[in-house]
Design goal:
globular; 327 residues; Quinone Oxidoreductase, Chain A, domain 1; 11 helices; 2 domains; 28% strand; 29% helix; alpha/beta; binds NADP nicotinamide-adenine-dinucleotide phosphate
Length: 327
């Protein structure tokens, strides 16, 4: 099948290239991609700072939504024509992309492919880090940093839907209000006075059971202070810096767990296990409209550099996606 995809000749020169779609493996489907989600990892890959794993497609793009147009022999649930969103092993910035059948979710009629493309990476990242590594339970308090981000905007809704009390952070008063509207009971402005002071005034210091940290750096000591005894802190990003100076005594005085992960390095079986849990625990709430993907802007695939610049500036709310349709 003919396809087109994005090739970065240099970090500042993107070209649309035509070739043939790769063959579909036994457990895989080929998806005619309507939309692909943009992730910060794509920007780093474009700059040569985050090379894809050796077995991954060199084409950027970690999540897509569209229609199944070829089905591998061992596939049992999906058929030609099904609307899906999926996590890809790279290759999403294209008109056609391969995904494992067990890394797909069937898109309900009430979700567009634009919305569908905004979901897989955020659902998987939040499920694995907050529910599995962080062991969040109903009734606990969870702090999801970066509530206005692609990850945070879904994470807040997921945690609230599972019965947690969610608090968050964002970068302006207006963004804090918008994050509250997603279901957070308190949102601190990380560009104002000390975060710890804001959470102390709101009565949350020393009370937070699980923290999802998307930014690292100086946030880590604040995380340690905000955590409740036996709290779990999961770090998945370093926008504020790769290095932190922390007071280690806080770790052992409160018996805290500090962990992290990167979805790109999670093996296929672990991803499939998360998808099974999401299908059972989260997807019904997506279908019911209780968890809604927030799409800020959809850019034509050819305008990928403009879309990346939008993400680099960080002025979006929720997700940015690419329209990858042919013609
Ligand atoms: N480890 C993994 O598996 C994994 C998977 C996916 C994403 N991530 C990471 O998670 C982070 C969020 O990803 P995303 O796709 O959701 O990104 P995104 O949509 O681009 O959101 C990033 C948001 O972070 C906030 N921000 C910017 N600078 C900040 C700072 N210095 N301190 C605190 N917040 C800041 C901004 O919102 P405000 O201005 O409102 O604060 C911005 O909108 C990224 O670091 C990404 O690399 C990790």
């Amino acid at each position: 099948m003919d396809r087109h995809f994005i090739h970065f000749e240099t970090p500042e020169l993107a070209r649309i290239v035509n070739d043939r779609s790769p063959p579909t493996g036994l457990d895989e489907v080929l998806i005619a991609v309507d939309h692909a989600g943009i992730n910060r990892a794509d920007l780093l890959q474009r700059l040569g700072l985050y090379p894809p794993p050796e077995d991954a497609s060199p084409i950027p793009g970690l999540e897509v939504a569209g229609r199944v147009v070829a089905v591998g022999e061992h596939c049992t649930t999906l058929k030609m024509g099904d609307r899906v969103c999926a996590l890809t092993h790279g290759g999403g910035y294209a008109s056609h992309a391969i995904a494992r059948e067990d890394h797909c979710l069937a898109l309900p009629d009430n979700l567009s492919t634009e919305q569908g493309a905004a979901l897989p990476e955020a659902l998987l990242t939040v499920w694995y880090n907050v529910m599995e590594r962080g062991q969040l339970s109903a009734g606990e308090i969870v702090l999801i940093h970066g509530g206005s981000s692609g990850i945070g905007s879904i994470g807040i809704q997921m945690a609230a839907a599972l019965g947690a009390d969610v608090i968050s952070t964002a970068g302006s008063a207006a963004r804090c209000d918008a994050v509250k509207a997603l279901g957070a009971s308190f949102v601190a402005n990380h560009r104002e006075s000390s975060l710890t002071a804001q959470f102390t005034d709101a009565g949350y210091v020393g009370q937070v059971d699980v923290i999802l940290d998307i930014a690292g750096g100086d946030l880590m000591q604040a995380n340690l202070e905000l955590a409740a005894p036996d709290g779990r802190i999961v770090c998945i990003g370093v926008m504020r810096g790769m290095h932190s100076e922390i007071n280690l005594t806080t770790l052992f005085m409160k018996r805290l767990t500090l962990t992290g992960s990167t979805l790109r390095r999670l093996n296929t079986a672990e991803r499939a296990r998360c998808f099974t849990a999401i299908r059972e625990r989260i997807w019904p709430q997506v279908i019911a409209g209780d968890i809604q993907p927030i799409v800020d802007t959809a850019y034509p695939l050819a305008n990928v550099l403009e879309a990346h610049e939008h993400m680099r500036l960080g002025t979006h709310f929720g997700k940015l996606v690419l329209d990858c349709r042919m013609g």
